[in-house]
Amino acid sequence: MTINDIMNILEEFAPLNFAEDFDNVGLLIGNATTEVTGVLVTLDTLENVVDEAIAKKCNLIVSFHPIIFGGLKKITGKNYVERVVIKAIKNDIAIYANHTALDNARHGVNAKICEVLGLSNTKILLPQKSTFKKLTTYVPVENSDDVKQALFTAGAGEIGNYSNCSFSVEGKGSYKANSNANPTKGTIGETHTEQEIMLTCIMTKNKTTAVVNALLDSHPYEEVAYDIQTLDNTNPYIGMGMIGELANALPEQQFLSDLKLKMKTPIVRHSKFLNRPIKKVAVLGGSGSFAISAAKEAGADVFITADLKYHQFYEAENQIVLADIGHFETEQFTKNLLVDYLTKKIPNFAVHLSESITNPINYF
């Protein structure tokens, strides 16, 4: 398998199109055509992780966090980022990161937290906007079923739990072919009228290229008329954070005690208790202060995230308990999630869970 093959498998799970604009995801170091000897999955790519990859004969590191985030103007080894880049290149090791693409994935980082906490009836806390696109095209009536099927096979027409969704209106299309054309129907130099279907369907933005290629391959016309619009609709299956429910409500202190055990954290920083049971739980792995308002509006009893600042705890405003369990702690199961996924997709391939500890924070 090549690096590109592995990337395609990973992007079925967490399409890079769904990553946040500020992020730096994808293949950061290496050539996509390189044959893969083994994959090492990690939360962060540090020097000891590169050493582990070398020892395990893995020439591809799949890392949740991107080691290269901003631009590198010099690579002299003066800091840990530059030293990782140098060591990886020297040893022909590629590095791929999916970060917020996996944060936003339906079964990604936050779904894993919900699983660990035993939450049910889960849904996205902050659904992403502008992930849907609408395709409109015009097809001769006799070819419309074949074109529709080609679009559906490429991934168009999927809405939640429904597939093969489309809308069609019949009408008359017209065109006049010039002397350089090779029309499927009609005569050069004469205006031709054809009974056509105006076909409309939606797709997520990560499938745009495949759907357009399917349209061009299946359409009978030499020149295919179509347009694509980005929709403002939110996508209930893609986005940051999740919210779900416990099977049984718990007192606040008992909930936090259970939280420490399940999320393997020695300490929980939290806003003041409200003396009411915890039933509805919102989660957001990593730095999630931007979702405090969304958690309150969703009626969550507690919001679990990381990196909350002093004044952000005031934003609880006696409506919710805010629980900061640590950045690493919220994302620690991410590498297990990726290893499980890759092992299922390529069971006979060498996929390793990194044993390196990359949490930079220690507790005393």
Automatic annotation (TrEMBL):
Similarity remark: Belongs to the GTP cyclohydrolase I type 2/NIF3 family.
Its taxonomic placement starts with: Bacteria, Pseudomonadati, Bacteroidota, Flavobacteriia, Flavobacteriales
Q: Which UniProt keywords apply?
A: Metal-binding
Under the heading SUPFAM superfamilies, the entry gives: NIF3 (NGG1p interacting factor 3)-like (SSF102705)
- Entry's NCBIfam families? YbgI_SA1388
Q: Which InterPro entries match?
A: DUF34/NIF3, DUF34/NIF3_bac, DUF34/NIF3_sf, N-reg_PII/ATP_PRibTrfase_C
Protein name, per record: GTP cyclohydrolase 1 type 2 homolog
Say which species the protein is native to.
Maribacter sedimenticola
Keyword Metal-binding among record annotations: yes
